[in-house]
Task: inverse folding
């Protein structure tokens, strides 16, 4: 009898802990909602950048070079400005842990990838690669 009582107790505890884990599982932030707020709220944007921000950019010899920017030197980005659509094409690709915004200029040499990362169920700007000419 004690054996069955022990088995029942262990089964009940494992079942209740799995139910508790499912209830407390936090859903990941939706990238599109994040991106809208990232572009409309400058304080939110700064809070969602991984500082010091490391990025790559063409140097004077058109070779990719590594750069770092601190929080106090960071300038707020406008990555969804509708006025830019005349000369800029945007493509966003999203997977579970990473999202990439590709900005490609229409006959103007712009070629930038902004890379976002999901960290603790929240999206953050991780880096960008600017190969513009």
Result:
């Amino acid at each position: 009898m004690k054996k069955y009582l022990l088995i029942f107790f262990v089964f009940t505890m494992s079942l209740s802990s799995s139910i508790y884990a499912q209830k407390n599982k936090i859903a990941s932030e939706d990238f599109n909602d994040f991106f809208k707020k990232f572009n409309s709220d400058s304080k939110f944007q700064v809070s969602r950048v991984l500082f010091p921000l490391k990025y790559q950019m063409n140097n004077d010899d058109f070779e990719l070079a590594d750069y770092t920017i601190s929080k106090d030197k960071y300038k707020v980005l406008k990555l969804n400005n509708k006025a830019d659509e005349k000369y800029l094409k945007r493509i966003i690709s999203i997977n579970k842990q990473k999202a990439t915004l590709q900005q490609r200029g229409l006959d103007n040499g712009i070629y930038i990838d902004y890379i976002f990362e999901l960290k603790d169920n929240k999206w953050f700007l991780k880096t960008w690669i600017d190969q513009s000419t």
In short: Strands lie at 53-58, 64-69, 88-94, 98-105, 111-119, 122-130. The mean pLDDT is 88.
